[in-house]
């Protein structure tokens, strides 16, 4: 019996390596990624974002150029590499998108609900926030992520994010850790980062916002989290919610030191 | 002196690291309560019923969250006993359904997302998201174990059918805090759908075993 089962077990152990069809599929995916990397459509979003940043807008007809993204009013270069962080003027820990909304309200005179009306684009309905986030993130390209984690509110956000990362709920019992707790795993053919592993976190966290080929648009970190909770069979996560920012603070700690490669390019 | 200091610092670092990595109950109840409050305030614009369903964790979800999926032995045994007792087998006694329907259910990820309003369309199991099953399907995930040739290797008798049915119905009756959804216990899949998945894994005619 034992000798009869051994070959089958050996074969089973080897299956992931010997199946030529799968090797071909993985090669195809690699080739596709290389092709795409030669030209990232996110460039167009960065350019549109820069125009939006500099053009007078909102009820007050003022540009966003004096927005304080954490390094002082008007400083865009390097700001994304230091987010999320605590902002004394709003008394909140904020990520890039939350801070863009703050500036649209404070400088341009939008009501918060107007500023957040269209965070995620749909065909024929482009989102200014996706473009603005692409532009600001792109201005930190090549810099090392170094989000501060010293203010008591930043530390609290990290602790909340950590709790939420492990929180299981819903009809499928899913938590973030269900997909992002182990190295080298996949959903279908999509590789999954282990977000508490600095090697994975540095590579992944720093590549958002990113142009998503499957969606034909730039998606932001807020969208990534919203999309994860959708898959987790949770209701829709509020845009710039405190939970979303806490999870970003949690991820940013493990991603510290990673080189900003945003806006990136993804499936 | 410098060497001694370095050694002391290293020891200190080790102790701190160790505390950071230790599994088991998270001592910080304050952070947990704060996180629960933040969670309740972060899903306010969508479906209210859905929000209530995720705000309220059942006991298993609460324990697995608290112990970060690595519960102490006594807690694990308690979960496994209660969950195993919750498994409902079909009254017909028939556990081996139709593998063709099982394959469709394994491929299908539809159901229970906030964009899935069609309550007449049955939920899928989404099994290929995490498992290799029929060898012809090369787009499969690796979060769970590979199940290719499952029946051919494990046998197809009644005991194995009950085991597989139970595993899909409520995996935590066997392994507390497993990452796999409790498909039957939580009403994601019907008893009949689960019998089709049993057939996909065990029926000698299924592509899993041919």
Determine the fraction of residues in helical runs of chain A and give it as a percent range. Answer: 40-55%
Give the H and E element order of chain B.
HHHHHHHHH
Structural class of chain A: mainly alpha
Shape of chain A: globular
Per CATH, the superfamily of the largest domain in chain B is Cytochrome c-like domain
Rounded to an integer in angstroms, the radius of gyration calculated over CA atoms of chain B is 22 Å
Query: Which CATH architecture of the largest domain in chain B?
Result: Orthogonal Bundle
- Determine the CATH superfamily of chain A: Cytochrome c-like domain
Determine the mean pLDDT of chain A. Answer: 91
Overall outline of chain B: globular
Identify the CATH class of the largest domain in chain B: Mainly Alpha
Supply the CATH architecture of chain A. Answer: Orthogonal Bundle
Could you characterize the architecture of this molecule?
The complex is a heterodimer of chains A (about 270) and B (about 210). With about 270 residues, chain A is mainly alpha-helical. In chain A, about 45% of the residues lie in helices and about 10% in strands. Chain A has eleven helices and seven strands. In chain A, strand 5 and strand 6 (about 215-220) form a beta hairpin. In chain A, helix 4 (about 95-105) crosses helix 6 (about 130-140). Chain B is globular. Chain B folds into two domains: about 1-55, no CATH class; about 100-200, Cytochrome Bc1 Complex, Chain D, domain 2 (Orthogonal Bundle). Chain B has about 210 residues and is mainly α. The termini of chain B are far apart. Chain B has helices at about 1-20, 30-40, 50-55, 60-65, 75-85, 100-105, 150-155, 160-170, 190-200. The longest helix of chain B has 20 residues, at about 1-20.
